[in-house]
Design brief:
alpha+beta, about 25% strand
Length: about 475
C-alpha cells in the first residue's frame, strides 16, 4: 500500500472513531431526546426584535448585504479563519445597529480561536470543545472566568463555523453543541435553555437545548434568508436576559473585574407576596452536571429577617407527583426538611420549542419548573465532627423516614447527600434531617403496586443501615 493510501485509511479510521465517540457521548447526555424542528421554526423566532423596515435600514447603512449576498462571506469560503473574521464583523455590525446602549451590559462577537477561551476542568480531555465564535456578554448573570477574559461563564451563545454546506459528521456537530450547552448550564446556573447556531458554508442551523433534550432546525441559506439570520443573532445576543434563556429573577452585582460580588433571588413568601432573598455568593449554588433531567439547582440564601434558607429550582415531568404536596404533608415532622414557600409553574419546556415534543423513540417529555424555599440545615452527614453527631444524625433521619412511612410517603432516594446534619444546638429529633423528596411517592396500595424508576440509583450507606438495625432491636 502506498503512503497516500495509508494516510487516507488512517484519516478514515479517525473519522469513524470520532463519529462513534460522538454518538456514545450524545447518547449519554441526550439519549433519544433529540428532535428536528419544523422548517419554519427558526424564522418564527425573534420577529419582534427587528421589523422588515428596520432590517432594510440596516442593509442601507451597513453595506454588509448587497445584491442578495453577504459580500464579505463570498470572499472567505476557502479558509476558516477568514470565515470567522468575516462572521465576527457581520455579527458585531448587527449588534451595534440594533442594540441600545445600557450601562454595564454589552454583547460582542469574539473569535474564540484567537482569544483564549477558558473551558475549565471537564474531567476528561475528550469533553473539551474548541468553539469558533463566542458572543461575549456582560450583565447581571455573567462573570469573567478567573484565568481568562472569555469562557462559559460570560458567553451568551456560540457560533460554530465550517466551510462545507453539509458537515462530514452531523452527530459530531450536534455533540459539540451539546457539550457547549452542558457547560453553559453549569457555569450559568440560572439558565432555562441554551441556543446557538452553526454556519457551515452558506447554511445556518439553530440548536436549542433544555432539560428535556435538544431540538435543531433544518438548514437555511444565509444569503437567501438574511432576515432570519439577523433575527437569530439579535435573539442570541439580546440584552434582555430572558430572551437568551436566563431566569432574570436571579441577579448578581458584578465588580469591575467581572467577579460576582453579591446577588438576589426574587420569589414568593408563604402568603404569596414577593420576597427578595440575598444569595450567599461565597457558597455558590449546588448544581447537577447532567444536561437532561431535573436540572436541580439549590441556592443558599438569607431571608429579609436574616434566617438561612435554601431555594431549590428544578424541572419535573407532568406525571411526577409534586414534591410540594408531599412536603406539605410532612409539615412539622421532626427529622424531615421543612418547606417555607413555593412556586409551582415558573416555566414549561414546551413554551421554548416549536411544539414538536416527540422524537423517534418518544423520549421527549414536557417539564415544568418548580421553585421551593426551604429551611436551611447543616452539611451532609458525611461531615460529622463528633461521635454525638455520628450517632444522633442518622438516628433522627431514620426516625424522620419512619414518620414519612407512617403517612404512606416513600422517599425512594436515600443517600448520604440527602441526609443533613441538624443546626447547632438542635433539639433531639432535629439533629439529622432527611431532604429531597422530589422522587418520593405517596403509596396508595401495597408496596408491590408502587412503580419503580430504575434510572434512579438509591442506596444507603452501611453505617446508616447498621444504626437502623441497632435501633430496631
Amino acid at each position: 500500500m502506498t503512503s497516500s493510501g495509508i494516510t487516507c485509511s488512517s484519516s478514515l479510521c479517525c473519522e469513524q472513531e470520532q463519529e462513534e465517540f460522538s454518538r456514545d457521548l450524545l447518547s449519554q447526555e441526550l439519549g433519544g431526546a433529540v428532535t428536528l424542528s419544523t422548517a419554519g421554526w427558526a424564522s418564527s423566532l425573534y420577529v419582534d426584535l427587528a421589523s422588515e423596515s428596520a432590517i432594510a435600514r440596516y442593509f442601507t447603512r451597513s453595506l454588509e448585504y448587497e445584491k442578495g449576498r453577504w459580500a464579505s462571506l463570498l470572499k472567505a469560503q476557502k479558509c476558516k479563519s477568514q470565515l470567522r473574521e468575516s462572521l465576527c464583523v457581520i455579527i458585531n455590525s448587527i449588534i451595534r445597529h440594533f442594540s441600545s446602549d445600557e450601562p454595564q451590559v454589552a454583547r460582542k462577537a469574539v473569535d474564540a480561536r484567537d482569544t483564549y477561551f477558558y473551558r475549565g476542568f471537564t474531567g476528561s480531555p475528550t469533553l473539551s470543545v474548541c468553539h469558533d465564535i463566542a458572543i461575549q456578554a456582560t450583565g447581571p448573570s455573567f462573570s469573567s472566568p478567573q484565568l481568562a477574559s472569555l469562557g462559559f461563564s460570560n458567553a451568551a451563545a456560540c457560533v460554530d463555523v465550517g466551510l462545507k454546506d453539509l458537515p462530514s459528521c452531523e452527530t459530531a456537530l450536534l455533540t459539540n453543541m451539546a457539550v457547549y450547552a452542558k457547560h453553559t448550564f453549569m457555569k450559568q446556573p440560572n439558565r432555562d435553555f441554551v441556543r446557538s447556531i452553526t454556519v457551515t458554508g452558506h447554511k445556518v442551523r439553530l440548536f436549542h437545548f433544555d432539560r428535556s433534550g435538544a431540538q435543531y432546525s433544518p438548514p437555511f441559506d444565509i444569503h437567501d434568508d438574511p432576515h432570519t439570520f439577523i433575527r437569530l443573532i439579535l435573539g442570541l445576543s439580546s440584552l434582555d436576559e430572558r430572551i437568551i434563556g436566563l431566569d432574570d429573577t436571579i441577579k448578581w452585582i458584578v465588580g469591575p473585574d467581572g467577579e460576582k460580588l453579591a446577588g438576589t433571588l426574587e420569589t414568593v413568601g408563604p402568603d404569596g407576596t414577593a420576597v427578595m432573598y440575598d444569595l450567599a455568593v461565597d457558597q455558590g449554588p449546588i448544581t447537577r452536571t447532567s444536561l437532561c433531567g431535573r436540572g436541580t439547582t439549590c441556592w443558599p440564601a438569607r431571608a429579609p429577617n436574616g434566617d438561612r434558607v435554601v431555594v431549590k429550582d428544578y424541572w419535573v415531568t407532568e406525571d411526577q407527583p409534586p414534591e410540594v404536596q408531599l412536603l406539605g404533608e410532612a409539615k412539622g415532622l421532626p427529622g424531615v426538611c421543612q418547606m417555607i414557600a413555593y412556586e409551582l409553574n415558573r416555566a414549561q419546556i414546551k413554551d421554548f420549542r416549536d411544539g414538536t415534543m416527540a422524537s423517534d423513540n418518544n423520549a421527549i417529555t414536557n417539564r415544568t419548573k418548580v421553585r421551593i424555599v426551604m429551611k436551611a440545615y447543616g452539611r451532609s452527614i458525611e461531615n460529622f465532627s463528633s461521635v454525638t453527631q455520628f450517632l444522633s444524625a442518622p438516628r433522627d433521619a431514620i426516625a424522620g423516614h419512619k414518620l414519612l412511612l407512617d403517612r404512606n410517603i416513600i422517599h425512594r432516594d436515600i443517600s448520604p447527600n440527602n441526609i443533613l446534619l441538624g443546626l447547632e444546638d438542635a433539639d433531639e429529633g432535629e439533629r439529622g434531617i432527611l431532604i429531597d423528596l422530589d422522587l418520593a411517592l405517596k403509596a396508595l396500595g401495597p408496596s408491590s403496586d408502587i412503580p419503580v424508576d430504575f434510572r434512579t440509583v438509591t442506596f444507603v450507606y452501611p453505617h446508616v443501615m447498621m444504626h437502623y438495625s441497632y435501633l430496631s432491636v
